[in-house]
Amino acid sequence: MTDSHDSPVALITGGGSGIGAAVARRLLDAGQRVAVTGRSEARLRGFAEELGDPDGLVTFAGNTADYADVRSAVDRTLKEFGRLDTVVANAGFATHDSVATGDPSGWTEMVLTNVLGPALLIRASIDALKETRGRIVLVGSVAGFVPTPGNIYGATKYAVTGLAENTRREVTEFGVGVTLIAPGRVETPFWDSYGSLPPGHLLTAGQIADSIVWALGQPAGVDVNTVVVRPIGQPN
Length: 236
Hints:
Blueprint: E1 9-12, H1 18-29, E2 33-38, H2 41-50, E3 57-61, H3 67-81, E4 86-89, H4 107-132, E5 135-139, H5 152-171, E6 177-183, E7 186-187, E8 203-204, H6 205-216, E9 226-229
Parallel strand pairs: 1-2, 1-4, 2-3, 4-5, 5-6, 6-9, 7-8
């Protein structure tokens, strides 16, 4: 890996596992420098050790729904690497219950993480992204396009779908791109709290990471806005 002071820099939230970790690996392999945030210091440390503690990787523990933590992650990334070209709002989770029968105790954290978190990351990073004419990547979901009965998680992802386009309409004049990646079923720790993987073929985190890296690799002036990626066999 080439760790040049001129190489692009990405900040990924929720990057210690799943899709975020896969994106970090792809970008590091491509010679970029990467900052990864997550709530678990131990998970972040394990991820860095798994990769051999590369020079181009830094990790920061923090809460993506807390603006002070998000602002600190952006500032520390800029201090460490001197620039910021991409932010990937990946942190999110589901309570896997419904509005009619679910447990409301988990909804507040889910809404704050899934909806407020990406908005805070955009707000904290936009000045730096203007300087590099960089890109905002929001990890949404097919659930943000296809209604399912009582799905509150899906409602949060509908909000992310709207946030992506609303943000694009504001920041495109600054030369900043916005890409919404909306995966279908992916085999990641997302399903741990569900208790089992859903039936049928699942995508891998690496396949979604490939889609993100593809969007980032488009020529200057090309703004890939929405990418919906389902596994073959997923009807909805």
